Amino acid sequence: MTKTVLTAEQWKLAESPDPVVLEVRNLTKHFPVGGMFRSKHVHALTDVSFAIRRGEVLAVVGESGSGKSTTARLIARLMEPTRGEILFRGQNVLQTEKRGASLSYRSGVQMIFQDPFGSMNPTHSVAHHIMRPLQIHHKVERRSDLLPRVHELLATVGLNPPADIANKYPHELSGGQRQRVAIARALAVDPEIVLADEPISMLDVSIRIGILNLMAKLKKEIGIGYLYITHDIASARYFADRIMVLYAGQMMEGADSDELIGNPAHPYTKLLLSAVPNPEVALGQREVVARGEPPSLIDPPPGCPFAARCPQVMDVCRKVMPDVQTIAPNHWVRCHLYGEASGGTAA
Amino acid sequence: MASATVPTSLSPQSSASSAAEPLLDVQDLSVEYQTLRGPVQAVSHVSFSIGQGEVFGLAGESGSGKSTIAHAIMRILHSPAVITGGNVLFDGDDVLEMDMDGLEAFRWRDVSMVFQSAMNALNPVLTVGEQIADVIQRHQPKTTKQQAKDRAAELLDIVGIDRNRVDDYPHQLSGGMRQRVVIAVALALKPQLMIMDEPTTALDVVVQKDIMQQIEYLKKELGFSILFITHDLSLMVEFSDRIGVMYAGEIVETTNAHELFNKPLHPYTQGLMASFPALVGPKETLTGIPGSPPNMLEPPSGCRFHPRCSKAFAPCPLQQPSLREVEPGHFVACHLY
Q: From A293, which residue of chain B is nearest by alpha-carbon distance?
C-alpha cells in the first residue's frame, strides 16, 4: 500500500515548543458491504496521518462521504480501524488498549457531536449530564464538591447564571445553550484533545460564531487541542491553525489555514474554494473548475479518486495514487501535478 | 452553464398583467399557531412583492417565519396554523379567497415549490420519470402516458440529468441529482413563480453551486420568478435581486441585495453579516449576536430584537418600530432611523 506516513517532522512540528498530544498514522477504515459473503468493501478512510499539538486546531474539511466523521469516530474509538496507529501522548493505544479505550484515554480525548438535541438525555437535568463524567472519572474528591464544580464548568462555557441552568432540562435550552452544555460536559474530564464533529452546523447562524469563539478561548486558556471537522471551509479558516482536505477518504492537501486558502495547490481544493458562496462575485461569473460528484467508495479503482472530475487529469492519475509532496513550508499536497513524476514544480 | 437549449414549449405562459404590476403581492400577512400554551404569532404583518423574473430572498434564522410564509402563499398550512390577516395577490387574484378548484389550478401551474430536503420526498418505489409524469398528467389529463414520459425526459435534460435516467429509481441517484429531479417536478407545468425553501441546504457546497447556477440559467431562459428562502446570507446575496430580512416573524429590513450587503442598516442584519467568517480578506474576530432567538410564545415587548441589540435605547422595549423607507428603496424597522 502507499506509504504516506506524514510525520510530525513533515508538519514542521519541531519548530513549536508545544508537544504533540495526538498522532495518527495510516488510519484506515474499510466497511464490508453487500451480500452474504461480504466480499465488497466501502473504503471510508484510507491511510490518513496527522498530528495535533497541545493547544492547536487542525481542521479536517471535505464533502459528505469524505471520511471526516469516520476519522473522529475512529479516534474516539467508537469503532475500530481496519489498520493504522493512534498515538496518544506517544503510546499506541490500539496496541496497549486492545479491548477498548481506557478511562484515561477517554478522559484525554473527548468528543462534541453535531446534534446538540440528540446528544443529551431528555429525562435528565443539565447538572446530571455534567456530574456523570465527574463521578465516573473521579474528578472530584467529595460528593459536596460535585455541584460547585458543575457550576464552575457552566460558567466557563458562558452559561449564566450557572445555578439556574444546572436545574434545567435539555428541552428548556436553545440549540446554542445545549452545545455549550456539551462542551462543558467534555471539559469536565480535563481533556487534552477535543474531537469536534461539525459542532456548529446545526445551530442558528447568529450563534455559531459564539460557539467557535468559546472553543478558541478554551484553546488559549486551557491549551486544548482540537480536531475540528467541518464542511464549512470559511469557518475552518476562522478557527483552525491548520487545514487538511479529505476527498473520498484520502488526504489531498494540508497547510497552515491562510496558506491553504491563499495558495491552494490541489485541483480539488481549488474546486472546493470556488464553490463557497461569495456575495462579492455574481454567481454566473464564478469560474467553473470542475463538476460532477464524488465517486463510489465501494472497492474504488487505483489512482487518485479525484481523477474522474479533475480538469487537469493525466494518464498517471488513473493508475497511481500520488504520494505526499511538500511544496512549501508546512504545505503538502498529493497530486501528480507536483513532484518528479510529472516534472512539475516541486519546491 | 449548461449548453442544452431550453425548448420554447417550456417558457411560462405569457402573463396578462402589465410589467408594473407585481406577480406576487403579499400584503400585511399574519399567521398564528394556536398551541396548547397559547397563540404563537409566527408571522406578523409581513408585506412584500415579487416582480416578473425577479428573485426575492427571505433571509432569517430558524423560527423566524420564512417557511410559514411560503406555506401560507401555497395555502398548505395545516392546523394549528391559521392565517389571521392579510392578502396574497397572485396576478391580481387573492390566493386566500380561492376555492378548491381555484387552488387546484393555482398550485403547481402558477406557483410551484421546492421544499427543504425535498430530495427525501421522492417516492422510493416509483421511477423519477413516473413521478414527473404524474404531475403532468394530474394537471393536464389529456396528456398521454407516452407524451408525459417524453416531457419527463425533456425536463431531466433541462435540469442537467441524462435523460436516459428517466427509468431510474430515486435510490439510484445521488442527493444532488434527486434535488435536481425535484426541481424538474417543480418546472413541469411551467410555473410563473417558484418558491424555493432552502433548496440546497442539505447538499455539499460544490453540488450547491452547480444547482444554483443551473437554477439561475433556467430562470434567465424561462423567465419565472423565485421566492428564495435560506438562512445562508452569502448565498442569498449572491443569488437574489431583493432581500427581506426576517426576525421573529417580522421583516425588519428590505432592500436590493447589493445595498443590503454593502450597507446593512438594521442591527440584526449587521449582526448576521458579522456571523459569517469570510474566506478572503483580513481575519477579524467576529462577534456574532449575543443571546438566542426569542421564544415566540412570549415575544419581547417593543422591538423583538431589543434584548439582543447592542444599540438598543429608551424607545426600543416600549414601542414596536414600523418598516419605514429611510433611503430610496431601503426599508428598515428600527428606532435608530
A: B207
The answer as to whether A327 is a domain residue is: no
Residues in CB range of B67: below 8 A, 6 or more apart: B116, B197, B229
Give this complex's ipTM.
0.81
Contacts of A187 (CB under 8 A, 6+ apart): A110, A153, A156, A157, A218, A222
Residue A142, C-beta contacts closer than 8 angstroms, at least 6 positions apart: none
Give per-residue pLDDT as tens, B160-173.
888 899 999 998 88
State whether residue B233 sits within 8 Å of chain A by CB: yes
Q: Measured between beta carbons, which residues in chain B are less than 8 angstroms from residue A281? A: 238
Q: Is the peptide bond before A161 cis (omega within 30 degrees of 0)?
A: yes
Q: What share of chain B is helix, strand, coil (3-state, %, to 5)?
A: 35, 25, 45
Pick the closest to residue A42 from A55, A28, A30 (CA basis): A30
Q: Which of A210, A271, A279 sits opposite B234 (nearest CB)?
A: A279
Q: Which of A209, A214, A257, A261 to mutate to test the interface with B (most CBs of B within 10 A)?
A: A209
Yes or no: say if A322 and A306 are a contact pair by the CB < 8 Å rule.
no
Label the pairing between strands B242-247 and B55-59: parallel
The CATH number that applies at residue A197 is 3.40.50.300
CB distance B24 to B15 below 8 Å: no
B276 touches chain A (CB under 8 A): yes
Q: What mean pLDDT comes out for the span A58-64?
A: 92
| Res. B227: pLDDT tops 70 | yes
**Rounded Cα–Cα distance for residues A267 and A252 (Å):** 9
CA distance A12 to A256: 11
Task: State the residue range of the domain holding A199.
Answer: 13-123+193-206+219-301
B221 touching A, CB under 8 A?
no
Domain total for chain A?
1
A179 in a domain, yes or no?
Answer: no
**And the C-alpha cell for B142?**
389529456
- Tell whether B272 is within 8 A of chain A (Cβ): yes
pLDDT at A130: 95
With respect to residue A55, please indicate whether it lies within any of the assigned structural domains: yes
- Range scoring the smallest mean pLDDT among A86-95, A156-165, B112-121, B196-205: B112-121
CB contact under 8 A, B292 and A177: yes
Model confidence at A286, pLDDT cuts 50, 70, 90, reads low
Residue of A nearest to B260 (CA): A279
Distance from CA of A293 to the nearest CA of B (A): 7
From chain B, the residues in CB contact with A230 under 8 A are none
Q: Do B276 and A293 touch (CB under 8 A)?
A: no
Is B160 at the interface with chain A, CB within 8 A? no
Asked whether residue A332 is assigned to any structural domain, the reply reads no
